[in-house]
Amino acid sequence: MDEVSESRRQVAYIVSEELIKVSSLLPSNRGRSKLVHQLVVACGLLRSRKNASGAIPVRPTVANREDLATFHDGDYLDYVLDPAPRRQPGGQAKEFGIEDDCPWFAGLHLYVPLIAGCALTAAQLLIEQKADVALAWDGGRHHAQKGEASGFCYVADIPLVLLRLKRAQGPRRPRVMYLDLDLHFADGVSIPFAKQQQPSRILTLSIHHASPGFFPAHPLAELTPADTADPFTLSIPLARGASNKTFHSIWGSIERVKEAFRPDFVVVQCGVDGLSGDPLAIWNWGLNAEDEGSLGWYVRGILAWGARTLFLGGGGYHSPNAARAWTYLTSVALGSPFAPDLPVPEHSLWPYYAPSFTMEVETGNMSDHNDGAYLSQVDDTFKQLATRLQDVCS
Ligand SMILES: [Zn+2]
Asked: Whole-model pTM above 0.85?
């Protein structure tokens, strides 16, 4: 996208005091939402009287039961929306997955409808053409299922937005491409939308780490075979140490899928647990948009497609780095990425950015186990898949 259209791009940013308070309760990422939003504000990225070119802050609506029931089961909703304390494990808690890594927490009944509302508000802004790009960093809960919490995820905000976007009115029946960049397979999205009637108007592409025993294991997490019956449900698994070089190599496959499918809307789950420095320490992905193949470079490439695009958050267990990453990606969306060595502006949470006190997420020296033979296999496979998609979609 050229600089003129970048400067005209309307970027909406979903935030409210209530969202920060409730999202910060998530047990796996306690306090992370507050770090993210305060850093975005401290970096001056939101529109204000002083800054006419910032992202437009938009308050999320709270999803109602009817909204949630477009994907979730009624008895799951009865359970998670009940404000009464549920501290006893077993029984219904077990049935609905509210245990182990998804414990019940005070505020769950507020969290579920507000996170869904956050993502749905962003989708609605795109549908109504009030924004070209919408950022909902509190969404992106890609493991939640219809009737079960899973993998730190209690609400299936992504299926809810894919269904909402698919039903949007427009010059043609809209096509929605979902791209998942989190370290983990997008089981909560890829599985429910698999084996749809073809040609499908929702395409999912999950890029993730897969190895024996790594969560979540599923046959759909494997490299999609070129002769699959369902070329609308795609996966590219990557081995340990995946770096900018590997991501640069697979970018052509992603673009080929996009060109064959021609989406009206793109939804990107930008989990940052694959970035270098995450405590999971499995990938070694960089952030700086100037580096080919980095997450920032990906976001810039996706924006250049010119489709109306929703960016969601996801995993990310080094909270200050998650805040650095999503703040940086906000600046990329605005068309003016800041230098990565920019000092973190002074604000109340500044001490969390020790010891560097800069915005940089440095890459490490982990070796990349994705070899040339595997990357060529991905390339060959996706050339065939894209040709098939083109035939089905045209
Ligand atoms: Zn993850």
From this structure: yes
Spacing, Cα 337 to ligand 1 middle (Å):
25
For 367, counting Cβ atoms within 10 Å of its Cβ (0-12 exposed, 13-18 middle, 19+ buried), the class is: exposed
Given the structure tokens 């976001």, which residue do they identify? 299
CB 293 within 8 A of CB 274: no
Q: Sketch out the chain's domains with CATH numbers.
A: 3-393 (3.40.800.20)
Q: Report pLDDT for 7.
A: 61
Say whether 143 is catalytic: yes
Q: Which of 37, 72, 142, 143 is catalytic?
A: 143
- C-alpha angle 311/317/319, rounded to 5°? 80
CA of 364 to the centre of ligand 1 (A): 19
Write down the pLDDT at residue 89. 66
Task: Give CA separation, 285 vs 92, 150, 182, 183, 308, in Å.
Answer: 39, 25, 11, 10, 26
pLDDT digits (tens, 9 = 90+) for 257-278: 999 999 999 999 999 999 999 9
Q: Kindly tell me if the per-residue pLDDT of 185 is higher than 70.
A: yes
Q: Which residue has the tokens 């695009």?
A: 309
Cα-Cα end-to-end distance for the chain = 25
Q: Give the pLDDT band of residue 5 (cuts 50, 70, 90).
A: low
Q: What is the pLDDT of residues 207-250, one digit of tens each?
A: 999 999 999 999 999 999 999 999 999 999 999 999 999 999 99
Beta strand 56-58 with 133-136: parallel, antiparallel or unpaired?
Answer: unpaired
Q: How far does the centroid of ligand 1 lie from the alpha carbon of residue 172, in Å?
A: 34
Distance from Cα 182 to the centre of ligand 1, integer Å: 5
What is the number of alpha carbons within 13 Å of residue 315 lying toward its C-beta?
A: 23
Spacing, Cα 333 to ligand 1 middle (Å): 22
Asked if residues 284 and 294 have their Cβ atoms less than 8 Å apart, the reply is no
Count the Cβ atoms, other than its own, within 10 Å of residue 287.
Answer: 28
Q: What is the mean pLDDT of the chain?
A: 95
